[in-house]
Amino acid sequence: MRTEEVDKVSIDLLDELGITASDHVLGELERHHIVERRRGARITYLVVRRTSGAALGLLPVYQFSRPYEASLAPENIFDDLPPSTDSRLCSAGGAGGYRNHLVLRSAIEPACAAGAARALVSAARQVASAAGCPQVLIPDLDPAQARWLAEFDPEAIAVATRDKAVMPIEWGDFSEYLAALPRKRRWQVRQERRAFADSGIVVRDEPLSSVAAEVAPLLAQTQQRHGDPAGPLEAEFYLAMLAMTPGSEVRALVGYLSGRPVAFSVVHRRGGTWAIRAVGRDYTAPEHGQYFNLTYYEPIARAIADGATLIDFGIGSLSAKRFRGCRLQPLRSLLLPTVPSRGR
Fold it and tell me: Which of 51, 88, 256, 301 suits 282 as a labelling partner, its CA being 20 to 30 A distant?
């Protein structure tokens, strides 16, 4: 096997790897590329090939300088890790969003998968070392990716698992969803739905591209309440980029009260999988259960009606998500020294 660095990922490469919905994956990579380059990051794409030239895998490597997304800060991922004083971070596969973009050829044999993953991680370590980073972060590996990299666990400086919430759609309508909840939860959901229905808030399902500027201040309010100082302009840029994801339908569920938006959620729809990608609300407006209805109940009801098979609700607020019927999927993160342990 051999690895190479490329400046750009092509649809031909993703198709060669047999990636499902390659146009969507390419769109995600391009969106991260634009956003992170705007922040000053350097991005290298590593490709591993057979000696014959056939592509086996792809791993983007992001070199960040502070400030970078809080979800990637090692001190926010790993327990008992001293806060880093280094202003640089090298992340293999992860640019935020609780997803790792390490991909291997579809239907690859297990032994070949381990070798390809090993070659990509080795190349990522070299990139990190050349950038002056003492460690390389490999964040948010899904179960399949974690198996590919399991051999690196023993030499990791730190290992952590955080969960994200997913909801398989197993009901014919919203009433069946309610009936599947425990009695106490069912009662609370009905109360929250009733309060929202009586509020006068009108929900519209709109293309995110047409309302990004209008709802950006609501996203900024929510981000600021969670410690992110980004303002409406940064929020609008993020939403505008999210709206441009190829291979997907990116919609906004917007709640209007007296003609003005008071809350919204972004629903990223790709085939049978929906993902909640952003939420925001006006905290000066009266509380009528906008958050729970636009984040959970409206997407659930619409996903059921649309025939979707899964909703990805992301990480955070896991007790609230489990309360409403979500299941947990582990995401594994490793922090590796750029210099391999002796014997590797």
Answer: 301
